[in-house]
Each structure stands twice: as structure tokens, then as C-alpha cells.
Fold this protein.
Amino acid sequence: MASVVTNDMSIVIGGDAGQGVESSGAGFCLSFARAGLHVFGMQDYHSRIRGGHNFYQIRLSEKPRLSHSNPVHLLIALTPETVRLHLDQLAEGAAGVLPERFEIDPAPLEKRGVRVDTLPLIRMAEEHGNRVMANTAALGAAAGITEFPLQFMESVIRDNFAAKGQQTVDTNLKVAEAAYGLARDRYGADFPYKLVPVDGAPRRMLMNGNQALAMGALAGGCRFVSAYPMTPATSIFEWLSGLPREYGVVTKHAEDEIAAADMAIGASFVGARGMTATSGGGFCLMVEALGLAAMTEVPMVIMLAQRGGPSNGLPTRTEQSDLLFAINASHGESPRIVTAPGTVEECFEAGWRAFNLAEKYQCPVVVMTDSFLASTLRTLDMDAIDFSSVSIDRGSTLTPQELDGLTNGYKRFEFTETGISPRALPGQHPAAAFSAASDEHDEEGHFLEEIEGRRRMMQKRMRKLREAEREMRPPKRYGPPEAETTLVCWGSSFGPCKEAADEINDAGGSANVLQFGDLWPLPEEVTAAALSECRRTVTVEQNYTSQLAKLLRMTTGIKVDGTLNKYDGRPFAPEEIVAGLGKEVVSGYAA
Amino acid sequence: MVTRLDPKLFDATTDITWCAGCGDFAILKALKLALADLGIEPYQALVVSGIGCGSKLPDYMNVNAYLTNHGRPLPIATAAKLANPDLHVIVTNGDGDSYGIGGNHFVQSCRRNPNLTHIVENNQIYGLTKGQYSPTSDKGFVTTTSPDGAIELAFNPLSVALGAGATFISRAFAGEPKHMAGLIAQGIQHRGYALIDVLQPCVTFNRTNTYDWYRKRVYHLEDEDYDPSDRKAAWEKAHEWEERIPLGVLYRVEGAPAYEDQVKALEGGSPLSRLDDLVKDPRPQQYERLKERFT
Ligand SMILES: Cc1ncc(C[n+]2csc(CCOP(=O)(O)OP(=O)(O)O)c2C)c(N)n1
Ligand SMILES: [Mg+2]
């Protein structure tokens, strides 16, 4: 047997939609997290309820990982199709498990030096329970092959099936145990990849970007959420809707995204912290609301989880193609802030910070993620989500005492140096009833079309953007300062870029990463400075037209040296980035 | 006992841009009257509108006013009420705004039953854009965009509201502001969504449905032996148009819960009051237990 590799491997579980790959995969991830391993669990599924290939790709390690990675060492195939589709990803010496019903052509497997065997998973499931438990058998077998102690899977089985009754728990446990024993005895000795619990590892959470964003928003005081379901944003809304009632989060499933965005505005207008969550198609419908919020200076938060576009596009797949759209959405010119967290931890902070920014600058804030970040599970230390780090800053919202002190009447849109006007909330004070109009207006909010008034009000609104720019953070640099190549990225691409840079540096090369989180208003000077320090810049984006590269050029005049693009709906794997360097295109358009 | 207020409290100093004789003047007057009669102060009310001549109304009042996008006041008002249930939230918008571009929001509001008062300034025409046919224009109505006469059937807001489950459906006429004020007041007092569809002559672009045209046809349901809790009767009244046009409350359901009454998360505080509490004391430890869900 080849030398043993412990706690550093990737596993794929694949099958048809409807076979429970998603829940099995998530449960499997959790069992490793409980054993103290770092988990990166990426989902890949089709936009349908039945049929079509779905899989979970799980990377396990003793170090935190920000990306999936190839090759794959163990394949749990619930269908022969899974073997065919993932064959090229398998490492030499990799193993695969398939239920006994199927036959596969051994030639291609032998050619790649991998071993895929059928195991009597269905028979074992039927013997101890029933055939729907074949997934449990498959996972039990996977644990057996890697000699990963069964107790961790057992604890997850107990938790996950508890609601279905003790009998279901017990039969699943029996199925898992039987499969575990068989697989361990048959293959354990020959399979070089092993998983063992990490001694002394702290307890960790397994969380995705949507969950972290939702928790951030909650901690930031958001108690009103209106949305219309759209993958991959839906789980933000569902998670907040399912919270215990004591938190008092009012959620409204609206008739469409126009109403969803307008409801978020209505709640924010009267002083609550309102938000909506959507994907590109829904964001299209929200564009007029974005303009309304900007014009009437209503704080509003939109969580925009991107997917492949245009139109209905690739509903369940990832893309970063809405950056320039989000920055420019709406007719006319108006202030808005756009941020893009790159990791699950950053999602938590982005979730609450968005509300502070929105209230401080009294304008819409769009927080951009994508399918990859929104739905990939990652292990986090318990203190990575730190509720005591959250602050609620309502900007220049007037207190009752300040309202009592109003002597000269109240002007909702008062001209100020920063462009930010003191904000009263309707219904709070007799001295501060006010008008707000989507038409151009004067300081009191009444209609106005006169030349000088329009100019001044336009300047006032846009001054807020200049003001906000000062608060926008420069790009974060990861890796050695004077690297030969800088991978320039935004949002979720940070994960694969970081892993790629690590790989390059470990192999004696020289790379670092520049990650943009605050994208609009882009802080010009610090951005230009950061880019000028780089020797060779390559943007890495999940889009066709290199939108970040364009944005950088538009604001700083600096053209990146190369662009790497991917627009097939699948996230970059670090290896692809490493392999792509040197082959990238300079035009700014994908090859 | 409510203390009646002086309707002048609601007067604003803004210039009114409506044409002389526009039915919207009567609606403005009636709304002020109704609020004053109910003792609601300007700062306690929020009037939300869309875009159009009629939608300018809130800007002509001393009140909290939010003039929003074309067709969108209902969802905005619904959420404003959910976020701060202490506000009296009133929507005023035109027939195009309400039944055309905002038609889905209208239907959803009927079945949703938020505690809102919805006054539709129904002049059967697009006024602000200078005279195109609207959803409520009668079939055959000739305008710049219907040179051969409107082909579609006129949208019937009352029967649609009835079909969609609205709990308060009424019609007023701009020629009778006092009567209208009474209906608006009843609408505000109604717990749930209250529709007041106002026949509102557009003196500039609708030369058919004039004050005289309406006056010849309107009559008061209160003067008849009419029971507004009778759904079948309401259905019939909702379809009277050519010869006789009923004014008053066509349909009313007493005691149905409003949307807000059924939102569990509102028990114990509104999104606004909870935020106020969090600003004083963010209580980060209250969220700690959520982390357990992920372990
Ligand atoms: C999104 C959008 N589309 C079109 C318009 C142009 N527009 C302004 S008012 C209006 C129709 C107004 O009709 P109605 O709602 O009946 O109000 P009225 O002017 O008759 O009171 C239209 C189409 C607009 N402002 N916004
Ligand atoms: Mg009209």
C-alpha cells in the first residue's frame, strides 16, 4: 500500500436529484466537523426536483480551507453516471463505491488507476431497514474505507433522524454499522487515505454564507425582511423566517421582487431596519425601488446572491456577473454602496455593517455574494461569529430629545456639508411630520423643478457618495507583499485565489492575492496605490467580461496585466487558477 | 372620546398644480376632514402615494407623506404599517397607478387585508400623461392611445376587490366631499384593508365622465334597504354602472383579523420598537444559542 495520507483528502458524493445527496452530504460534513476536521463542503446541483446529477464535494483537512480542490480521493456514487462524470477528477489510487445494482465498465477505471467497486448497499439497507437507507449505507461504507470512527456519523444520524422517531434512528444506525464493517474489512487495509479525529480540536460550526449573512443582519437589528424566493438567495429568507418568534423578525413573502424591495423600503422609511434578498433576476425587478430609495434617501439593504445569467440563466450555479449592473442599476445618477464579502466570516460582518452604512449615508446598500459562497458549507471556530463585535449605528437619526429641540421646523432633506441630513422618523414627533417625494424636491421634500434647487439637491445626494468613499476599505492583501503575480479578485473568488497562491508559493513560485470587498464607491486612491505596488496583476473572476478589471480601469485608469475568467457556472478550483496563469487573456474578455 | 381637530391643521403651503375644477381637490378636502374628525394629528398619519395627478395629493397636505414610484404605494404602505403599527397609513393613488401598473399589488392587498385605507382617485383616464385610456376607461372610450375606442373591458375594481377577499369595499364621488369624508373615516376605522374608489372627474382629459355624467347616475346605498354584509348583493351592486351607480359601503366584513393581527413575530413588539430596544441594549448574548444549530 502507498504511504498513508491522514486528514487531507476530498470526497465526492453524487447521485440523481431526489436521491438525497444534499442532505446526506450536509450530514456527512457535519460528522467530520464534529471530529475536529476542517470541512469545505461544496454543493453542485441542477435546477430540478427529480433527475439530473447532483453532488457534494467535500474537502477535509487539519487546516482551514477556503476552497474545494482536486483531485478527489473517494467517490460515493449512487448512480453509474456519477462514476462517469467524476472519473477525470479522481486521483491515482482513488476508490469508489457504488450500489450493487449497477455495472460499470472497468477499462477506463483501470486506465486511471482507480478502483470502483460495487457494494451490497441496497441489500444491507433492506436487511436492516429499508432501501431508502442506501445513502446511509453508502456513507457508512465511506467512513469504513477511510477508517473514520463511526461514532461521529452515529451522532449526526441520531440528531438528524430524531424527529422521525427512535425506530428510524435505530435502523439507520444498524445500516451504517453494517456497511462500515463490510467496507473497512474489504478495503480498509489497501486504501491509503485515512480520516482520524483531531485531538484537542475546538468545537466548530458548519455554516454557509447565507446563514452567516442572515445572522449578521439579525444581530444588526434587522427585524423586517421581505423577499420573493429565488435561488441561491432563498435560504437567507427562509432562515430568518424560521427563527424563534422571540426575536421578532417579521418576514413577508411578497407577490414579486418589486413588492419585496418596496416593502423593505416601507419598513425602513418608518425607521425599522428592512432588507430584501434576491438573485439577479429578482434584482432586475428591484431596480426601480433602488432608485426610489436613493432619491428619497431611505436606507435599504439588498442581499444579492448571484447566479448564472442572463434571464433565468443557471439557477443553481455560480457567477459574478452582476457587479457592474449592481453599481449602475437604476436610471439617473444616485448614491449607493456595494460590498462583497469573500468568506463566510466576512458574510457575517457584511450582514450587519450593511445596515450601519445604509443608515449613515441614507442610501441603498447592496451586499453581493454568489451561489458558491451562499451555499458552500465551511467549518468555523465558535468565536468566528462574534455577536459582541456587532455595533448598531443609526447615523444621524434624530433622538426624541433632539426632535424636542427643533425650533426652526424640520427639513428632511436639509443641505449639509456631508450631504447627510438629520433624519426624523414619521410618527415620532409632532414637530417633524415631513414629505418625501420620488420627484425632485426641495429641502422640505416638496416637488421642485427649479434650476438651482435641482443642482443643489443633486449635489447634496452625490456628496454622500464622496463621504462614503472615505469609509470604504482598501483591498485586502493576502500573501507575500512583493510577489511576482497578484491575483486580483472580489467576493467568493478569494477562496480559490488564496488556495492557488498558497499552492504556487509552496511550490517555490511567488503569488499573492488582492481581494476587493468594498466595491462602490471604490476608494480610488488606496486602490490605485495597492495596484501600483503589484508587479503583475491578473484578475480572477467568474464572469465573461472581467467586470472588476473594467471597474478598476474606469476608476483608477490602471489596466490589469491579464484576466482569468470562468463563466460555466462552476466555481474556480485552485488548480484551474494555477494552470490558467500564463494563459490568461489580456483583452479583458474571456477566451 | 376622540377630540375633533381643525382640518386646517392639515393645510400645507405648497402650490397645488391640479387643474381648476379637478376632482382631486374634493378628495384632498375629504381626507383632511376625515383625519380631523377622527382626531388623528398630522404627524400620526402617513399618506403614501404613487405617481400621477392624484398621487400628488400627499404633497399638498401637512402630514407625513411618501410619494413613491408609479404603482407601488401599496407594498410600501403595507410594510410601513407592519414596521410601525402605531401609524395611520393611508394610500392615495390614481386608477392607472392602482389598477394598472399596480394591479397585482391591489389584488394581493385585498386578500392580504393589511390595516390600510386605500383611496383611489379614479378618473378613468391617465391624467398626468395627458389623456391616455386607463384600466377603468369604458369599452369604446376614445383617447390618443385608443383612437378606435378602447378594446378591453373596463376593469371593475369593486368586483375584483370582492372576488379577492377585501373586507371593506366602498365608492365615493368627488362631487360629494362630505359623504366621501364619512367613507374615508369609516375606512380608517375599519380593521383591515379598506378600499374607497372615488369617482373623480378629470376636467381636462375626460370629457365623457364629467360631474354631470356622474351626478345623473349616482345614488346612495344608505338610502336604500341595503345590507353591506350581503356578499351576493354586493356582487350585484358592484356591476351596476350604465344607468345607476351606487355610492357608499358596498361590502363590509366585521371582525375579520387584519394581516398584522396574525403575524406572530409582532407579538411583543414591532420591528421599529425592537430596534429601539436594541439600540439601548444590543444584548449580544441573546443570539449565542443560535450557534448551536450549526454544531
Ligand atoms: C414606471 C413609470 N411608467 C410610466 C410613468 C408615466 N406616468 C406618470 S403618471 C402615469 C399614469 C397616471 O394615471 P393615473 O394613475 O390614473 O393617475 P392620474 O394622473 O390620472 O391621477 C404614467 C403612465 C411613470 N412615471 N413611471
Ligand atoms: Mg387616472
